[in-house]
User: Which sequence fits this backbone?
């Protein structure tokens, strides 16, 4: 498949890779890499019967931390308990675990803690994330995706070893 590069306008190749998630089904991964300028974009698409435009899961135990998160590039991640919202970014889809999402949040929070006031707030959020990872605190993971291509898949459905967590 050919696609016009949104950055330089050159024709680039679009790759579609099916990705099988145990006991859930297939997810199509689209990757386009522009040969001229190196622009890279990734997105995911799920089968129609799995589509949901809002997913919500309470994360309360270490097992929940291992739940799989699929976020298309139209999905907004929200964690009310942490006061965190991760806006979608075009071409930035990923398949990871709840822990992987928390690691991304930690990265963003660290980047934003520039002055003393925001650093104190950041430290509080980071401490709270630590407690959640240990199973001492709980949070709600919400993904709003108008395209319905995002999902949170519980680990009760499969064994962890079957899964390969990837940062696309
Ligand atoms: Zn390009």
Assistant:
């Amino acid at each position: 498949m050919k696609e016009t590069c949104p950055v330089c306008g050159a024709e680039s190749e679009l790759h579609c890779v099916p990705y099988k998630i145990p006991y859930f089904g297939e997810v199509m991964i689209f990757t386009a890499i522009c040969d001229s300028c190196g622009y890279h974009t990734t997105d995911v698409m799920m089968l129609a019967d799995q589509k949901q435009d809002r997913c919500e899961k309470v994360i309360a135990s270490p097992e929940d931390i291992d739940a799989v998160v699929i976020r298309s590039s139209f999905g907004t991640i929200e964690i009310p308990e942490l006061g965190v919202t991760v806006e979608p970014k075009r071409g930035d889809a990923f398949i990871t675990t709840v822990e992987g999402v928390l690691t991304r949040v930690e990265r963003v929070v660290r980047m934003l803690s520039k002055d003393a006031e925001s650093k104190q707030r950041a430290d509080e959020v980071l401490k709270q994330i630590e407690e959640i990872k240990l199973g001492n605190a709980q949070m709600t993971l919400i993904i709003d995706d108008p395209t319905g291509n995002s999902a949170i898949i519980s680990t009760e459905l499969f064994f962890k070893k079957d899964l390969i967590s990837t940062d696309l």
In short: The chain has a mean pLDDT of 84. Residues 110 and 122 are 7 Å apart (CA to CA). DSSP finds three helices and eleven strands in the chain.
